[in-house]
Amino acid sequence: MKLYYAPGACSIGIHVLLNEIGKPFEATAVNLREGEQFKPPFVEVNPKSKVPTLVRDDGTVLTEFPAIAYYLARTNPGLKLLPDDFDGQARCLELMDYAVSTIHMQGFARQFRPTNFAPNAADEETVKARGKEMIAKAFAVMDKTLEGHEYLLGTFSVADAALFYVESWAKRLEIPMPANVAAHLERMLARPAVKATMVAEGLT
Q1: What is the pLDDT of residues 136-176, one digit of tens each?
Q2: Predicted TM-score of the model (pTM)
Q3: Which CATH number fits domain 86-191: 1.20.1260.10, 1.20.1050.10, 2.60.40.10, 1.10.3720.10?
Q4: How confident is the model at residue 109 (pLDDT cuts 50, 70, 90)?
Q5: Which of 5, 55, 176, 201 is least surrounded by Cβ atoms within 10 Å, i.e. has the fewest?
Q6: How confident is the model at residue 119, as a pLDDT?
Q7: What is the mean pLDDT of the chain?
């Protein structure tokens, strides 16, 4: 398999999962700042111009964080990256989607790209402030979920990989995290797969 990623982007969560699985894969960085995602050859692989992008062993391409995470979990069932029972699976997908679609796409998107939400430059700080409110609310939800648990579902799952990447952004931007969320980040950073990913992406 081949993973296209950008250092420190949301793709880091998929990079972590691949290292958790431990099977051989190739990792290729895409320079988002230079617009490489909009140019050949990458745009020919993924016309969405996004990471993460996973090229599977049969040459087919899979995109979108939740879809890739689900695929990796289901094709490596022995690692228990997804619960066995239907209710557990639904809860796992619920938490992963909340991290991706709300914390990332609503909260942090307003931090990183306020111009996408504000027609006037004068409104950008208001947009960022609203984004921080969304992040704080979502982290409070995750904090409650983590009460009494090391990981969101008790044991490590694909949902933790999703939460990890938004936690890493919060740390980078010095956005406060509640106690259980901050502890979860430190727990994630101590995992060998996360350490290996950080080194591979040049983030140490």
Answers
A1: 999 999 999 999 999 999 999 999 999 999 999 999 999 99
A2: 0.97
A3: 1.20.1050.10
A4: very high
A5: 176
A6: 84
A7: 97
According to CATH, where is 1.20.1050.10 located in the chain? 86-191
- Residue 80's CB is within 10 A of a number of other CB atoms, namely 14
Which part of the chain has CATH 3.40.30.10? 2-79+195-200
Local structure of residue 141 (DSSP, 8 states): H
Confidence bin at 84 (pLDDT 50/70/90): very high
Q: Identify the CA nearest to 184 among candidates 198, 194, 174.
A: 194
Strands 26-29 and 53-55: unpaired
Q: Which CATH superfamily is domain 2-79+195-200 in?
A: Glutaredoxin (3.40.30.10)
DSSP conformation class of 155: S
CB atoms within 10 A of CB 117: 16
